[in-house]
Amino acid sequence: MKDHVWKIIGVVAVLAVGASIVYSNSVSSRANDGVVFEAHIKGNTDAKVVLTEHSDFQCPACGQFFPVIQDLLAEHGDSIAFEYKHFPLISIHPYAVPAAKAAEAAGQQGKFFEMHDKLFENQQIWSVGAAPQAFFNAYAEELGLDVGLFKTHMKSSLINDKIQAEFEEARELGLTSTPSFFLNGKRMSFQTYEDFVGQITAAVNPEAADAEMEADHATEPAVRFGL
């Protein structure tokens, strides 16, 4: 009798697990409906100068670079194509992936960079609590998104896969920290914000940069050789 009871319990358990898997797959399938991806590029998509950032929405340093990039685009937006790629450092930033999902979910409604800006502008608010999703939903509403669709897309396995693929791309490039920048395909190295901005400005207007360098050399004291 006991064996019979345990067999029934086992069958019920298997059916419950099977039903759970079917339901999970159904939810994932619905969440993936209509999901399409495009490169996240701001500025002039035809510009010769391409600045690519591999970034993490919860990273404080990325947050500090956000206004610097905003100023660059405001001044040189017609001459720069700025591309954003995900590199969530999940070992130290537990909300980096959910934030990236929020940006991608907003992107499905044509507002990736609007959510990108919200996340960085409010980084010190949503990144320190225990439930950032409530903030993400509020930002979606402020942006005029279909919040129900936004929540659905937050569960998309395709969006999760995209974020994971960009993370792996960054690691294959040898990146270990955020933000990491590439200028026209070459990894940037700099010590200060001024150096960072200067390199990009020089790429936008190399003639002006060369003229400034020549002027600097002209004002240097001439080296006199002894008689």
From the spread of the alpha carbons, the general shape counts as: globular
Q: Strand percentage, roughly?
A: 5-15%
Average per-residue pLDDT, rounded, comes to 86
Helical content band: 55-70%
Overall tally of domains: 1
How would a crystallographer describe the biggest sheet? Answer: 5 strands, mixed
Instruction: Tell me what the CATH architecture is.
Output: 3-Layer(aba) Sandwich
Order of helices and strands: HEEHEHHHHHHEEHH
Tell me the number of helical segments per DSSP (H or I, 4 or more residues long): 10
How many whole angstroms does the radius of gyration measure? Answer: 24 Å
Terminal residue distance: 115 Å
Helix vs. strand class: alpha+beta
Strand order within the widest beta sheet? 1-3-2-4-5
What is the CATH third-level topology name? Glutaredoxin
User: CATH top level?
Assistant: Alpha Beta
CATH superfamily: Glutaredoxin
